[in-house]
Amino acid sequence: MTTKKILNFLDRRDLADGPCLVVDLEIVRKTYRALQRSLPQTRIHYAVKANPAPEILELLVGLGASFDVASVAEVNMVLEAGAAACDISYGNTIKKERDIAQAYRMGVRQFAVDCPAEVEKIARAAPGSQVFCRLLTDGAGAEWPLSRKFGCDPYVAICVMHLARQRGLDPCGLSFHVGSQQTDPAAWQRSLEQAAKVVQTLADEGVLIRCLNLGGGFPARYLSDVPGPGDYGREIRRALRAHFGNALPDTVIEPGRGLVGNAGTIRSEVVLISSKSPGDPLQWVYLDIGKFGGLAETMDEAIRYPLTTRYGNTATVPYILAGPTCDSADVLYEQRPCRLPHNLQIGDDVLIEGTGAYTSTYASVGFNGFGPLAVHVV
Amino acid sequence: MTTKKILNFLDRRDLADGPCLVVDLEIVRKTYRALQRSLPQTRIHYAVKANPAPEILELLVGLGASFDVASVAEVNMVLEAGAAACDISYGNTIKKERDIAQAYRMGVRQFAVDCPAEVEKIARAAPGSQVFCRLLTDGAGAEWPLSRKFGCDPYVAICVMHLARQRGLDPCGLSFHVGSQQTDPAAWQRSLEQAAKVVQTLADEGVLIRCLNLGGGFPARYLSDVPGPGDYGREIRRALRAHFGNALPDTVIEPGRGLVGNAGTIRSEVVLISSKSPGDPLQWVYLDIGKFGGLAETMDEAIRYPLTTRYGNTATVPYILAGPTCDSADVLYEQRPCRLPHNLQIGDDVLIEGTGAYTSTYASVGFNGFGPLAVHVV
């Protein structure tokens, strides 16, 4: 999965000590094109939080993408990469009123909400803006846990859209999220059925929903195979036709992981290999990157990254894998150990693949004195 | 629990937008003195990873403390604060050989190990140094989960110490850790019993252990009362006498959380309060700090911080508490909701108390565009 370009970069360069993430822009470009082909009528908003590297943002601006941002800092990054403010959607439903005002001053006119209080803030701080109400979904089939943190039930959503109109906002859309690393392309079907009912109720009450934001959830390929963009596109188009017939709304998707996850590889180093006692069936392998250096998504062993070494993938044995900090919670895979070569040595490189998304910005600012993850875009 | 000095600072200062941690040095000083009084014969190594703020390190240098470090960067911080290299113990059992060499060049001569491979590294990179072998403990009674990540069983420890001597190192001590936020002062009793047996076996084989590192584990006071330093000192002294009689070894403790946890308070802001549906029994409160902004220890709701507001603690109701990012895992307390005033408002300050340890350095470098936690030491 690690591209030649990344391997060449790692071979050629005298890199600073410590782990680093290398992202291959060509993969981002190809994946963007594949998503576009799979949903040709749908606008793509890149979820900047997945990886805000300037080179990625600039590439996507060049490809005509729009952007989903979580904060004013992300608005800034996207504008600096050359995007137009009208191509930015402020998708975080949790915003300070002064951040809404700041984004509005910067030209942002699309905001996500999931409750009346947020509508009131937007009415005051970003008058006349477009509002998307996020519906609560169950996240079944997603590998990264989806809590009830975002979204509201259909009743609240209908109230929210009416309130938005009363406050002079444009209640233009609904959004939902089927859960990150969603491995079931049919997951959109359930959410679209629910969304269609809300759209119908609102239409009956005189509020016309023009756009559906279908969220993210498109998976990266980790240890297991996942369906491709074509499969997702086909299922989503089928569900749209089933629930909206010929009255298809505009649609938006917000890929993050699905767009950049497989474009990146982290190079780490084996710091130590040891046993706790002579009778232990498994050895421990300690890398120079762990939960607090960028691999936070190994929480509860949710995301299982493929690992490769110079020894190939034959003659592997199970190991417990852990990070380099003095924190006993900094263990990556223990319940389900990972397979690595039986002859792995201290000092060996381990490539952690599919790490283009949700790594560099998750890294701690300096826990245990270990600095943030270095990022190289090639 | 938030001191007048911290409250005055927060009142007086026009702070930048966003959450901040304020640490009162006076509390650090008092807690250091209390720990000293409780174990007058024991040397205190401050676990720098708990909070490496330069002002804290400088205060502790002035008080005569020694330091437990996890990385070369932490060696640097401690030296810059004015400590002598001989007062530094490199307590991380997972070290790159070049980091051991670097620390040795900087004057460090005490290193922790828990396996033969680490002894070999130290023999090559830090010849003649003192070696402490860490024993595996079960962590029963600790609120922050202690995994099997660190330490080895007695058999391996004995081999490790013999190997250290063969390699020209000084096999001078054993260490163990009873688990962070250890609420049972008797926990040291079990570990000391095990350590005493290893010391005896080694003595019989001609290796004299001169020092025991009793680790950290001393708790901060969060929502529930915890025993004070006096209780811990009494139990530890009793256990030492029980297992070592008059042949008491030198002893070291490594408090981190127990020394600085209660010295700090985070000021955060309520960004949103909402319900998912009209029938929901609980509302959600969203703060401008969460799991990725410094409150990583709310993982699995392990550490429960006290929260205070301008309304006092009367007329509270349970809320689900979450952070500001677009990550659905960024929820602080949901299984066991937290109590906050029924009339809490968007924009209110919430003080998160007992946050002097394991917050500022855990903060992500910029997840969702939210910057690291600001730290002020008063």
Structural class of chain A: alpha/beta
Q: What do the pLDDT scores of chain A average to?
A: 95
Shape of chain A: elongated
Query: Which oligomeric state applies?
Result: homodimer
Greatest interface (CB-CB under 8 A), with counts per chain: A-B, 84 and 84 residues
CATH topology of the largest domain in chain A: TIM Barrel
Number of domains of chain A: 2
> Spans of chain A of 5+ residues with little confidence (pLDDT < 50)?
none
- Portion in helices of chain A: 25-40%
Beta strand % of chain A: 15-25%
Radius of gyration of chain A, whole Å: 22 Å
Q: How many H/I helical runs of chain A?
A: 10
Instruction: Give a quick account of the main beta sheet of chain A: strands, pairing sense, barrel closure.
Output: 8 strands, mixed
Show the helix and strand layout.
The structure is a homodimer of 378-residue chains.
Chain A: H1 4-12, E1 20-23, H2 25-38, E2 42-47, H3 54-62, E3 66-69, H4 72-80, E4 88-90, H5 97-105, E5 110-113, H6 116-125, E6 130-134, H7 154-166, E7 170-175, H8 187-204, E8 211-213, H9 229-244, E9 250-253, H10 257-260, E10 264-274, E11 283-287, E12 307-308, E13 316-322, E14 331-341, E15 349-353, E16 374-377
Helix pairs in contact in A: 2-3, 2-9, 5-6, 6-7, 7-8, 8-9
Describe the structure concisely for a colleague.
The structure is a homodimer of 378-residue chains. In chain A, 29% of the residues lie in helices and 22% in strands.
